[in-house]
Amino acid sequence: MSLRGKIAVVTGGANGIGAAMASRLRADGATVAIVDVQEPKAELLADQAGQGAGVFFACDVVDGAAVADCAAQILGRLGPVAILVNNAGGSGKTPARTIEEHSDDIWHYVMDLNVTSIIRFCRALVPGMRQAGFGRIINISSGSRHGMAGPFPTMKSHLAYATAKGTQVTLTRQLATDLGPSGITCNAIAPGMILPDPEARITRIIMEQPEEFRAGMLARIPSRRFGNGQDIAAVAAFLASEESAYVNGQTIDVTG
After folding, report:
1. What angle (nearest 5°) sits at the alpha carbon of residue 140, between those of residues 134 and 143?
2. Which residues pair with 137 in a beta bridge?
3. Which of 30, 63, 150, 201 could be disulfide-bonded to 52 (CB atoms 3.0-4.6 Å)?
């Protein structure tokens, strides 16, 4: 599944699942634009034999003007983008446990972070894909899109987050319908309980929970283990490749 010669963009690519996907796409030969508000570790940018390059672009994806500027920088420096991984997201910065606590500001922030950012990056980068007659868009949804039974230790505003992740699935199908005739596919990956690496925020929070809490979570996973960044990156690499040409509009659950 060689990606040599292709330009890929991974939003939220500096750490966690995003960093795992950026690393895998580089290993498969792509030049990867890592978009994040935080600078990635040096190894994601370091030259390694047989790997594509990694280039960092600072951007807050909630800021529409910043996204437009970031996309222009990527196109100007690297050229047309073939692969767009919309990974940036999250449940926001402000706790909101009930519907009464979900202010308009909280709601709009979470939706902009998870959904509007996809529209903005697609708007900027799809024209180049159309011209090339090839494109791969991968949206990172979540198993939480089916709804959550109450608050979760890593979650700030679960109502807005679950809604945004469900919206991503519908957006994925509509983009696939609209862009398929141009040779562009759009698919989503819905991770389950993923602990990307030991330093990831979610990993630290889960490992701080009582042992019985973790045991209960594992008992609900048929594979009896938490997922890791490589589990998601492997699926992303397939969806980014030419091997996935006839997979379009799908949401792939990676939940063990």
Report:
1. 140
2. 84, 186
3. 30
Task: Count CB-CB contacts under 10 A for residue 52.
Answer: 22
Give all domains of the chain, ordered by start, each with its CATH number: 7-197+227-254 (3.40.50.720)
Encoded tokens for 226: 């938490």
Cα atoms found within 13 Å of the Cα of residue 251, Cβ hemisphere only:
24
Q: What is the mean pLDDT of residues 77-87?
A: 98
| 161 is known as an active-site residue | yes
Q: What is the mean pLDDT of residues 182-188?
A: 98
Phi, psi of 83 (to 5 degrees): -130, 125
Quick one: pLDDT at residue 46? 85
The model's pTM: 0.94
Catalytic option among 56, 109, 134, 161: 161
Q: Is the pLDDT of residue 91 over 90?
A: no
